[in-house]
Amino acid sequence: MTLDIRGLSKFYGTFQALNEIDLSVGDSEFVCLLGPSGCGKTTLLRVIAGLESFETGEMMLGGRDLATIGARDRGFGIVFQSYSLFPQMTAAQNIGYGLKLRQRPRAEISARVEELLALVRLEQFADRLPWQLSGGQQQRVAIARALAVQPALLLLDEPLSALDARVRAGLRTEIRQMQKRLGIPTIMVTHDQEEALTMADRVVCMSAGRIEQIGSPAEIYARPATRFVADFVGSSTLLSAARAAGFGVTPPPGQGDSLFALRPEDVLIREDAAAAGRVRSITFLGNVSRVEVDWQGETILAETHRLPGFGEGASVDLSLQPGAGVWVQP
């Protein structure tokens, strides 16, 4: 069942929160809406959920016009970052709540809750109240509750942002494996580029209510289309055509105002007392060291896979990996 959004716009008074959004989400696909705070990603998720209206455009799911269907009747599962569990209910009761509202038989509810507790690996915690569970366990309960009603679409609004880094990394893998196993089309909002790159089939980069680029994680990282994407996803050095000429590259015909985006791993660096580059700083990141170099009036980022044999202030020569860099729209 495919979700198709065409020309969707959303206003709050005179402020346009979403501007001509075009997006399709295929059956079993995991899509991440990625962007900074205020870019419109959560607004788009809430519009899809039916929690917000929209002014222009259309939104169809499997041939059904969602504009004519209320949030309760869309059959979507929604998970928020705040968990939103009922504090007086046990984990099992929280998971079965949606089925109870739908007046499903008690035996069916019990079987479904047992199945989901096993899916999220919380069988031993069925009778615990939310305050007796860790943050990661509470979020597992929230996900199981969303899955209980067998949703046509799963919507995740920054579900991991309230967790610490180690728990977040583990749950990230669990959610992705679970989604693949169940085959439920899923849309997740995040401002964390690592989350988007590691979890999504496709990433939707958003800025100021617009979609800047849609692509696979590899495409978004290796071939950013715009300055915003090159800047927001990973780290980049952005050079004008004149500056890029110093590395022997020129823009495509008719694109003289384009910028040349270099990832740090694209740049080769070696110490050379006669070279014009000067090391400004070295940051140790564990598996790599990030080096900032003053080069012809620009700051170039480079990486080495070990601690370099030179220090700050050293003179260095820079060159590019074969095929390195991509031209992006300013």
What is the strand and helix layout of this fold?
Blueprint: E1 3-12, E2 15-25, E3 30-34, H1 41-49, E4 56-61, E5 64-65, E6 76-80, H2 91-101, H3 106-119, H4 135-148, E7 153-157, H5 165-182, E8 186-190, H6 193-199, E9 202-207, E10 210-215, H7 217-222, H8 227-232, E11 237-239, H9 241-244, E12 259-262, E13 267-271, E14 277-284, E15 289-295, E16 298-304, E17 315-320, E18 326-328
Parallel strand pairs: 3-8, 3-9, 6-7, 7-8
Antiparallel strand pairs: 1-2, 1-4, 4-5, 9-10, 11-12, 12-18, 13-17, 14-15, 14-17, 15-16
Helix pairs in contact: 2-3, 2-4, 3-4
Quaternary organization: single chain
CATH architecture of the largest domain: 3-Layer(aba) Sandwich
User: Could you give the order of the helices and strands?
Assistant: EEEHEEEHHHEHEHEEHHEHEEEEEEE
The amount of beta strand, in percent, is 25-35%
Q: What is the tally of beta strands? A: 18
- In this structure, how is the largest beta sheet organized? 6 strands, mixed
CATH class assignment of the largest domain:
Alpha Beta
Within the largest sheet, what's the order of strands? 6-7-8-3-9-10
Distance between the termini: 37 Å
Helix content: 25-40%
Structural class: alpha+beta
Average pLDDT confidence is 94
User: In the CATH hierarchy, what is the superfamily of the largest domain?
Assistant: P-loop containing nucleotide triphosphate hydrolases
**Please, how many helices?**
9
If you compute it from the alpha carbons, what radius of gyration comes out, rounded to the nearest whole angstrom?
24 Å
Looking at the structure, the CATH topology of the largest domain is: Rossmann fold
> What is the 3D form?
globular
Number of structurally distinct domains: 2
The low-pLDDT segments are: none
